[in-house]
Design goal:
It is built from six helices and ten strands; from the N terminus they run E-H-E-E-H-E-E-E-H-E-E-E-H-H-E-H. By secondary structure, the protein is of the alpha+beta class. Helix 1 crosses helix 2 and helix 3 packs parallel to helix 5. It starts with 14 loop residues before the first strand and ends in a 6-residue tail after the last helix. About 35% of the residues are buried.
């Protein structure tokens, strides 16, 4: 059994549960979550994070719970995860020290911890998340990858089209907002029978973006950003919604056809080869209620004592 802070009994005060936020360029990783040992030719981000935590010499077995399971090649500006850490006869790490130590042990990996919070022992990074925000980046007028600046290579979907009918795309996006059965917009996966396909999409927005090198590149590259926010998403739902909206913008899919796909509530109703590729997708935010992140007054006082600080 993996020990958690709740199973340490009287030593519980030496154990801390942390919520960390982290970034990664997903190109070289198999995805956000751990890859089994027999598939380690391409690790998941979680594998590297857990290795870094083990380097801190915790007493307990290391197990990270990732909030958002991004796919192979998908990037993140702010994913999150929680884990328990108990040190032998030592107080919990201060949050800033933990961030610095983990980044040191991550070394040259394209993964960075941006912040850490000590949270209650019953906090869960995945189930306590109140919303997740994804942004999909599209570059127009780019016939091949090699015409992109290095700062955007594998960080956007390059299209030959010099224009998209953004007005039609926004009308299409409005059809997806709200509570729907999104079965047609999920890819087949092993856990499909256990996932409720009814989701509430709070935001589907399309706005101009910019190249990461826009101030220093020799020509302008039209970039559009599609933003989606919901409490949770189905497997590859964002990439499938993006692909459908782009098809509307290209005139390949009409609004009635899009509604037909949505109303079919069947993953087989989604056209083949329409989904957007992974490399243009970024998880940009995972949000929580402030109240869920608050330690009890007793725990807060213990943390102050353990770090040698007072409220003064």
């Amino acid at each position: 059994m993996i020990k958690t802070c709740q199973t340490f009994g009287e030593n519980m005060h030496t154990c801390a549960r942390y919520l960390i936020f982290f970034q990664y360029i997903g190109t070289k990783y198999s995805g956000a979550v751990r890859v089994p040992p027999h598939q380690l030719e391409r690790k998941g981000v979680q594998n590297h994070l857990e290795d870094a935590i083990r380097n801190l010499k915790p007493v307990n077995a290391v197990s990270l719970s990732v909030s958002s399971r991004t796919d192979t090649g998908v990037h993140s500006l702010s994913n999150s995860a929680h884990f328990d850490l108990q040190r032998k006869n030592k107080p919990p790490f201060p949050e800033d020290v933990l961030v610095e130590a983990l980044n040191f042990h991550l070394k040259t990996e394209q993964i960075r911890i941006t912040r850490a919070h000590r949270v209650p022992v019953d906090f869960h990074a995945r189930f306590n998340a109140k919303s997740r925000t994804y942004v999909y980046r599209i570059a127009l007028g780019i016939s091949q990858h090699s015409l992109l600046p290095l700062t955007d290579h594998n960080l956007c979907w390059n299209l030959r089209n010099t224009e998209l009918d953004v007005g039609a795309m926004r009308e299409a996006a409005a059809l997806l907002v709200g509570t729907h059965n999104f079965s047609s917009f999920r890819a087949v996966s092993s856990d499909m029978p256990f996932k409720n396909p009814v989701k509430t999409l709070d935001v589907a927005d399309i706005q101009p973006g910019s190249s990461f090198a826009h101030s220093h590149f020799h020509r302008d590259i039209p970039i559009w950003e599609l933003t989606f926010r919901s409490r949770s998403f189905l497997y590859r739902q964002v990439r499938r919604m993006t692909g459908a909206l782009v098809a509307v913008g290209q005139g390949k899919l009409s609004l009635p056809q899009l509604m037909g796909i949505l109303e079919a509530q069947d993953s087989l109703a989604y056209p083949n080869n329409m989904a957007a590729p992974a490399h243009g997708l970024f998880l940009t935010r995972v949000d929580y209620k402030d109240s869920d992140l608050q330690l009890s007054q007793q725990m807060s006082e213990e943390q102050l004592l353990s770090t040698g600080k007072s409220e003064e």
